[in-house]
Structure prediction request, 187 residues.
Amino acid sequence: MIYRVDLHVHTLRGSADPALCLSELVRAARQAGLDAIAITDTDYCTPVPIELRGVVLIPGCEVSTLGGSILGVFLERPLDFVRLRQHGLPTADETVLEIHRCGGLAILAHPFAQTDANPALFPIRPDAVETACACVVPPNSAAGQRALLWATEHQRPPRGRQQCPLPPESWVRFTRRSPAPAYPALS
Prediction:
């Protein structure tokens, strides 16, 4: 079975990106035929129910780091932002370790969206790399191609290719997973 999942979705809370409220995101996800969405508000772990109107909601967040943004998805508990930020912005590797400590997967988010991106600051071993992000890195863009090349060179799976037509205001991207792993946070 193939699950259609978007692993990078912002709600209105804690996001400067264009966003929708949770119920509008779920409606857009259902219209797009998605089975699940990860709620990844910037620098905040938004509490979400396990499911809303037939769409599984995956707990997560997007963390600002010295090496760019890192998504934490499938979190079993919220990140400790106080500890993570005790000396200012954390490194990407510190963030990956915190995400793993909280039972999640770490995804390097839109790594080349900024033209001055410094790959030396990227995490050494993210679990995946976002290679397309509808609101920041369109599919097949130069930044997306650089991210795909970096993912390939570092043997990390790419995530986030735009494969379904959605209204621009929803900013939903998705990833195909087959078969779906059993995540304790969703059981």
